[in-house]
Specification:
The chain has about 120 residues and is mainly β. The chain is built from no helices and eleven strands.
Length: about 120
């Protein structure tokens, strides 16, 4: 069973930075797609970025140029570097994993709160 544990959330002022981490256990995840998603209060969960097993990445438009996903396969960890944060980035951020040949993200972390004050 794959388990994901996020960390690194917190309170930051607008314009500041945070780095989220997602530790993956249970499987070697080098061939898994890894994604970060977020859910703001009263809104549906949305995708932020997906890393397609290191071959390519997709970012939602609102974070392009500000957020960067990276992964350390040796540590089974994926990161989300968030710069130039805005109040509208406030949300619970979730890490997710999708196994090869699957069409859905099957594994999810518990989420970590990011709050950006104006």
């Amino acid at each position: 069973q794959v388990q994901l544990v996020e960390s690194g959330g917190g309170l930051v002022q607008a314009g500041g930075s945070l780095r989220l981490s997602c530790a993956v256990s249970g499987r070697t995840f080098s061939n898994y797609a890894m994604g970060w998603f977020r859910q703001a209060p009263g809104k549906e969960r949305e995708f932020v970025v997906i890393d397609w097993s290191g071959s390519s990445t997709d970012y939602t438009d609102s974070v392009k140029g500000r957020f960067t996903i990276s992964r350390d396969n040796a540590k089974n960890t994926v990161y989300l570097q968030m710069n130039s944060l805005k109040p509208e980035d406030t949300a619970v951020y979730y890490c997710a994993a999708r196994a090869p040949f699957r069409s859905e993200f099957d594994y999810w972390g518990q989420g970590t709160q990011v709050t950006v004050s104006s």
